[in-house]
């Protein structure tokens, strides 16, 4: 019984001692962290503000080592988490085939991103070589790779709208010289009966591995209209017949079918069309028939077709 009691008291003493020891160590550790230290830390570099004529290569310097003076808390943080620092490369200098930032330029930029409690003492290099290369740039049009299937009596009203309708590509001249357009990913829309708008990714050639594009996605939109058909009877005008002859056409009027939106059909009349029979263009199975041609039709229609393609004629001397 006494042995068990003694054993329990010993364990409690050990726990209390351990707690005091841990607290003492923590107090000592925190006290030391509040002191100022000089040490080295690594910082990850983010390159910003590239000039339009330059691109970042595949092997840039990703980090830089700096000697700094700060309190232990911040020093501990810098060694635990690599802080990201931005570098403005618009200040690069080109010499001896290389693009470089001087030590002073780098230090000035880094110092501007530290708090007042951090002093930058030294860098691990006296200049920073930036992996950049000259590029060309050009604007190329975007083409939609789209397949549309409309509901009955519906069709596309006008043309597609693409936003943006062109993009800027930057890269080595040898890569982008032959690039004339860029297409969207395949777009398939079925049973369309109303206006549509689709967000689509652009498909870039695999060979352009050193080029970059200003946009990777575009919006393809279109207006859809419900259409109908209406038949009109239009007089035929004969032209280029020999002088001294009178021409008679059989028939002298022809029917045509116009396809347009229901709203537009209401404002269309036969006077909006003009059909000619040109003697200079003899056609048909015999020499007394002429091909008909529509030379005038209203705007904003989707199609027009003649019910007959030829007309017979007779020439009579005056």
Automatic annotation (TrEMBL):
<protein>
    <submittedName>
        <fullName>YbbR-like domain-containing protein</fullName>
    </submittedName>
</protein>
<dbReference type="InterPro" id="IPR012505">
    <property type="entry name" value="YbbR"/>
</dbReference>
<dbReference type="Pfam" id="PF07949">
    <property type="entry name" value="YbbR"/>
</dbReference>
<dbReference type="InterPro" id="IPR053154">
    <property type="entry name" value="c-di-AMP_regulator"/>
</dbReference>
């Amino acid at each position: 019984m006494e042995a068990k009691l003694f054993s329990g008291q010993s364990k409690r003493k050990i726990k209390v001692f351990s707690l005091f020891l841990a607290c003492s160590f923590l107090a000592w550790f925190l006290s030391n962290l509040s002191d100022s230290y000089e040490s080295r830390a690594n910082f990850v570099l983010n390159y910003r503000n590239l000039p339009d004529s330059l691109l970042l290569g595949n092997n840039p310097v990703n980090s830089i080592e700096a000697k700094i003076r700060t309190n232990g808390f911040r020093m501990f943080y810098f060694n635990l988490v690599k802080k990201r620092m931005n570098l403005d490369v618009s200040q690069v200098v080109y010499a001896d085939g290389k693009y470089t930032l001087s030590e002073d330029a780098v230090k000035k930029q880094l110092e501007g991103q530290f708090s007042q409690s951090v002093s930058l003492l030294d860098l691990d290099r006296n200049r920073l070589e930036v992996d950049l290369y000259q590029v060309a740039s050009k604007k190329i049009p975007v083409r939609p790779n789209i397949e549309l299937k409309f509901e009955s009596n519906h069709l596309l009203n006008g043309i597609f709208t693409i936003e943006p309708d062109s993009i800027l590509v930057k890269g080595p001249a040898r890569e982008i010289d032959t690039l004339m357009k860029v297409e969207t990913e395949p777009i398939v829309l079925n049973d369309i009966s109303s206006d549509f708008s689709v967000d689509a990714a652009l498909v870039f050639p695999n060979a352009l591995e050193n080029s970059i594009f200003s946009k990777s996605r575009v919006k393809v939109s279109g207006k859809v209209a419900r259409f109908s058909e209406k038949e009109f009877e239009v007089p035929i005008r004969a032209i280029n017949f020999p002088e001294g002859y009178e021409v008679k056409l059989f028939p002298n009027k022809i029917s045509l079918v116009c396809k347009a939106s229901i709203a537009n059909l209401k404002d269309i009349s036969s006077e909006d069309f003009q059909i000619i029979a040109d003697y200079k263009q003899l056609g048909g199975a015999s020499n007394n028939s002429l091909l008909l041609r529509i030379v005038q039709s209203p705007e904003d229609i989707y199609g027009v077709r003649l019910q007959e393609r030829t007309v017979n004629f007779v020439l009579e001397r005056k």
